[in-house]
Amino acid sequence: MNKEKFNxxxxxxxxxxxxxxxxxxxxxxxxxxxxxxxxxxxxxxxxQWQEHITLLTNFWAMLVLKDTNxxxxxxxxxxxxxxxxxxxxxxxxxxxxxxxxxxxxxxAKIFKTKANExxxxxxxxLSL
Length: 128
Description:
By secondary structure, the chain is mainly α. It has one domain (11-125): Orthogonal Bundle (Globin-like), CATH 1.10.490.10. It has six helices and no strands. The chain has helices spanning 11-27, 31-40, 47-65, 74-78, 85-102, 105-125. It is globular, with a radius of gyration of 14 Å. The N and C termini lie far apart (41 Å).
């Protein structure tokens, strides 16, 4: 049975998307998941993870809803992680899978466009 997909974007379902994405990350065994587990641990209920989920919920709400609760500097946090082009492709694949499972196609496209812009920007800044 297929679950009903979101037909609007709001902060509540962005939060659900972020949680689902990172729950998936914790079950993966790849370089992307290793970085998250090394930095935040492997238990999503910790304070570190909860702060990260709130931060990323606000980040995506800023990008797609023009919400003003995000004020971070994402590039700075990623500079010294040893990221590779393949890691960005893996991240995008995992993100797309989450987005496709939660949002109707026309809304999923909004997130995918933003995710591609982020990945392209980061790879350019990291000279990948």
